[in-house]
């Protein structure tokens, strides 16, 4: 009996010794955003953990009567939680309050640090800023270092010398696509991202992880928010409007957004006069159903219809220098009618079998139906505008006619099925996934241009009437892509400091060219213990640009001189070996927080497909013909120059080069310098009045005559210079903590009325050139200018 009692005592003691309490949860800030790199530790012990990029943490501790958990992070107030007689598995979610200083009634908060390759941003302040595109996310990106855009009508952007096609965009973890046949900002209309629905933004200009697609330049990861209650917003302006409505219950949340845009008033400021009739419509929805604690289903949907109609009448352009001014006048006949329809839907089914593992099944479909049709003829005169200087004589340089015709149609379908997962094991977080993608493209293109100069059709042939340019394409393509990736992320908090290490591998296969790709990627972030104001980062990887339809279309000539399109089955993926070294330094000046960031990068480029840019149209050679490099420095000063308002200044230096036919030339998106400013201010005596300024200065791009390449000669367009300003007056400000409203206005959060001035300095920026040949067969590049100064009135309501 004594032996039996002794055994029971030993077993009980062993059970008590080995009993563990498993604690997990999520740490967020006051805006319900995840707090990364927050420490969670057990008071009086060395047991602790750090939160990941989602704010999640987990730790285990032996059984005890009382536990005190301490939650801390730089820039936030410390929080303590006391647990009395805890047992089993516990979930504790904590919300941290930002550490703040009061300056005359204005709250100044700390700045979140970046230890990975993805930087986080918020659109809350930018929604009220002056922006010709309506405050879309891409315009916000264009003010970041290393990112440039020189067309206020477009949402497309270039990152560190790359093309628009080298940027991957994700919404809720699903890769999304843009129309393929857009050639100018007038046609584009609305961004694919609805800024009214955005919750989180993560963006990388290079060195991004293995979970992101085979693109060489950047990754944009958008997460649409899930409303916590009934909410909505309404925006109205002279260019259109938007409406978003959200609602949430215990198990179901829904968010809907509608946008409508008619920017004919903005287009009317361009030099080509006529009847602009653009209509852009977009509807998006994000539905989430929480079936249980372990199962969740969601749906992301998008319908976009861009309808662009244009009937030009006249154009009058002056160009040249002060000593050599030329005048280009055109009278038009005809019209253009373009239509871009896109439909997108994605289902995700998430399963969380344990607190350490989450699995997600994804199924998505994308359909685009695009039509570009125009028949436009014109009679033009090219004159020397007056005289300048002794002996200078003005007069007619050229007169002619031209006729442009196009009937281009493209239909594309992309179906994507995938499985992704994430598993936490100790200090390691494993991410992995596999996907199967089926693509089909149907293209029917027929376009030509006839040009008559000084009474002769070009090219001149006394025996036949010929056109100066023609193109025909009749293509049907179906192919399959397979992708897989695995990545490990480990966070180590040691005596030297905090390390965030990520390493992954991505592989893919494409049935069209039978090509296998293997893409290793790695990054390290370090915060030294001795001076945690510093953050250092290094990233490297071998990135590929898996070609899509436009990139392997080759132009070939038949025996009659006609141009037709042939798909290059020997195409290979373009390659970029990247090295990125960066650092951030956070400091306080004038009792306000600031962060100075800098990155140096070098990209060794191989298997390049040369291309030329005309406005937004990218014309690829369709063959892997060149190699080159891109290198540069990016700087950004971010902070609250004015208490309570985020602002920043970005500055970049860059050099790119590629070898075309033995000639070293800059790449088409080579911007040697760029400067961007986003500044917000308020008036102390009028706290309801806010001021915003967005300024861009970009170096001009290398350009050349149509249907030729830079190795035969090029010149640079003038620098792109633009300043937009806005004034917003708060008719109704958001309620303060503890404040309540009564009556009709209790249903509203805020109401703002604003006035914008686009292109404040009324600068004529060049988007592209129209080439004219005179009687002596001398070519003149007549600039196509973008929009001039324009005023806009808008109303923004949150409820």
C-alpha geometry: globular
Mind telling me the C-alpha Rg? 29 Å
Amount of beta strand: over 45%
Largest sheet: 22 strands, antiparallel, barrel
State the helix count.
4
The low-confidence parts are: 1-18, 100-109, 387-393
Distance between the termini: 74 Å
Q: What is the mean predicted local confidence, pLDDT?
A: 84
What structural class do the secondary elements suggest?
mainly beta
Number of strands: 49
Q: Helical amount among residues, as a percent range? A: under 10%
Explain what the structure shows:
- The chain is mainly beta and 799 residues long.
- It is built from four helices and 49 strands.
- The N and C termini lie far apart (74 Å).
Provide keyphrases for this structure.
799 residues, mainly beta, 22-stranded antiparallel beta barrel, five-stranded mixed beta sheet, 4 helices, 4% helix
Topology, element by element:
Blueprint: H1 2-18, E1 20-28, E2 39-42, E3 48-50, E4 56-62, E5 66-72, E6 79-84, E7 89-91, E8 94-95, E9 100-103, E10 106-109, E11 119-121, H2 137-141, E12 147-148, E13 158-159, E14 167-171, E15 174-176, H3 185-188, E16 198-204, E17 218-224, E18 231-237, E19 240-248, E20 252-261, H4 264-267, E21 272-290, E22 295-321, E23 324-354, E24 357-384, E25 395-425, E26 428-453, E27 456-458, E28 469-493, E29 497-510, E30 515-528, E31 534-545, E32 553-557, E33 563-567, E34 574-589, E35 592-608, E36 611-614, E37 617-620, E38 626-642, E39 645-660, E40 663-665, E41 673-683, E42 686-698, E43 702-703, E44 715-716, E45 720-732, E46 750-758, E47 766-773, E48 779-785, E49 790-798
Parallel strand pairs: 1-7, 1-8, 14-17
Antiparallel strand pairs: 1-4, 2-3, 2-5, 5-6, 9-10, 11-16, 12-13, 14-15, 16-17, 18-19, 18-49, 19-20, 20-21, 21-22, 22-23, 23-24, 24-25, 25-26, 26-27, 26-28, 28-29, 29-30, 30-31, 31-34, 32-33, 34-35, 35-38, 36-37, 38-39, 39-40, 39-41, 41-42, 42-45, 43-44, 45-46, 46-49, 47-48
